[in-house]
Amino acid sequence: MSPTPTTGVQVLSRGVWRENPVFVQLLGLCPALAVTNTVANSLAMGLATFFVLLGSSVLVSVAKDWIPKQVRISAYILVIATFVTIADLVLAAVVPDIHKALGAFIALIVVNCMILGRQEAFASKNPVGRAVLDAVGTGAGFIVALVAIGGFREVLGYGSFLGVPLLGPAFEPWVVMILPAGGFFTLGFILLGFGWWEARRANSVRPRRWMNEATVTVEAPR
Amino acid sequence: MTDLLWILVSAMLVNNFTLVLFLGLCPFLGVSARVSTALRMGLANIFVLTITSVTASFLNAFILPFAPYLRLISFIVVIASLVQITEMAIKKLSPTLFRELGIFLPLITTNCAILGLAIFQTNRGYGFVEGLFFALGAGLGLTLALVLMASIRETTELADVPSMARGMGLVLILAGSLSLAFMGFAGLFTV
Known about the structure:
The structure holds two protein chains of two kinds. By secondary structure, chain A is mostly helical. Chain A has helices at 8-14, 29-34, 39-63, 72-94, 96-102, 113-121, 128-158, 175-178, 180-200, 209-215; strands at 160-161, 164-165. Chain A contains ten helices and two strands. Chain A has a two-stranded antiparallel ribbon with strand order 1-2. In chain A, a hairpin with a 2-residue loop joins strand 1 and strand 2. The model of chain A is unreliable at 211-219 (pLDDT under 50). By secondary structure, chain B is mainly α. Chain B is built from nine helices and no strands. Chain B is globular and about 60 Å long.
């Protein structure tokens, strides 16, 4: 983690870019790759996650003094699962088509490690106002990442953006972009792009954060 | 019997949890640097998936008809506590197995493959036996994907890749190629 931001603006902005949950921290990858074959699906998924993150952060931040330390993770999961159930039912009632397209992945927002991560790292230690800013910033960063991946895949895979044809009838769609493999390739190339950009920047003084965090996860027991 | 085998092979290859359905990417990217680690993670996954499947069948049959909106909450709570209890039991009964699976067990609880399995099983209306085969297939598929990925990564570790590709970018593109290869299984069955 970077040095603790002091102003509200910093709390808000770092989630969008500098600590973007998908591109930088590589959290919440399952939904980021699974449902991003069109922009509309990405947007719905991003908004649902945004809602769950915001709701859980507010509740956890308000209730942080009453949650015993030993069972805090279970308590966070319960809070998150409640908000996900709300989001699931609301989406099913309001936009049944998109709810069907997203399928089980709405329910799987519960195990999106980004949301649990924000509760543990931020909402449980900060007053409500800052928790809201953090949730809005991180949630917005998640939406940005999802729409970027979704846009890339929809333009190349269907030749359209948000259902509007862009590239004309002569365009031969890249079927691979709609297939699951396309999700891996898209995020892979975006990360390569970031790697190239960082490498160019003044021989990068600081190491890439996401590399450190991604490789430290688990060591085998010997 | 044919149906059960179909469920098993379909969950393992055609709809591979990791490479086709994007479930359980965190361990897939995080724990796939060594083949031995990946294998152990895979075994732990098979184990937890089986427990989950049994639990989900039980919950679906006896409790959830009365309160369907509690499905998600009860799944996650029951699965997490069951894994915790199993971990304690294994620690007591078989220290060797505990050392083998050790830290992976708690990590697996927040793996979306586990909750995904419970939800898919419910949505498709699988019964107890079908669920068991589904879980076994999913676990074997996860293990296969993990071990394949780990062996590729062990090889590329010594390769001279451009500096910008060191790290996750390369891993994701490798995963994409693997996923593409698994697409080949889509024509494996003609119903």
